Predict the structure.
Amino acid sequence: MLMLRSLAFLVVFYVNTALFLVLGSWLLLAPRRWAMEGLRLHGLASLWWLKVICGTGFELRGAAKLPRGACLVASKHQSAWDTFALIPVFRDPAMVMKAELGWIPLYGWFSHKFQHIFVSRERGPSALKNLIRDARHRASQGREIVIFPEGTRRPPGAPPDYKPGFIALYEGLGLPCYPVALNSGLFWPRRSIVRYPGTIVIEVLDPIPPGLPRAEARAQIQERIEAACDRLIAEARAAPNPPPLPSAAADEDASLLKKGSAKPS
C-alpha cells in the first residue's frame, strides 16, 4: 500500500507540475509578482496532494521570528521536497540555485522570471562576487535570500558539509541570518520514490545578527541548524509510526547509544 500511494503521488506530482508550467506559461509575460503567486500556489497544491495521497503532513514552527523585510535564510537541504515547500513559508523568496537549472525549458525560464539567484560554482571567486551582487539587488527589493549552505541534498544525520557561499553572503549582505532546520529527508528520502506518512517539520531558528566575525558566524549557523535537525529526527523517531532512519543517521544514533552505555552508572 505504501508503494502504491507513493507511485500515485509521483504521477500526480509531475502531472500537477507540468500543468502549472504549461497552463501558467502566460505568466512569463506577466508581472513577476503574479508569477511568484503561481509558484506559491504550486507549492501549496503539492503539499495538499502529498497529505491526501501519502498522509505526509507539514508543520511550520517559528515563522513569527521572520522579519517583514530582507534577510538571509540558511536552510538545511535533505530532500526535493524543500525546493517547493519552502516557497510558501516566505513572502518573496529569492532562491540561490545552480546555474544549469536555469537552462531547463519552462522550469528554467520561470526561474529567471522569479529572479532567483544563479551560481556557476565552477567559476570560483568570480561566482561568489556575482552571487553577492545579485543577492544585494534582490535584498534591495525587500526579498528573503534563501540558500542551502551545503549546496546539495544531504541525508538526515549525515556529517555536515557547509560550503563557503553562505558565509560570503552573510558578510556581503550585512543582514541577519535565519537558520532553518527540517526533517524532510526522513519522509521524502532522496533517490527514492517512497513517501512515508507523518509530519515534516520546518523550524525557523533564532537569527544570527549581522557583523559577527566570519568564523563565529559560520560556527553558530552550522551548530544551530545541525542541533535542531538532530532534535527533529529524534522527535520523528518517537512518533507512533516513525519513518525508517537513513543509514547515516542510524550509524550516528548507534554511536551515541554506545557512548551513553559506556558511561558509569
Q: What stands out?
A: Residues 250-265 have pLDDT under 50 and may be disordered. The longest helix spans residues 214-237.
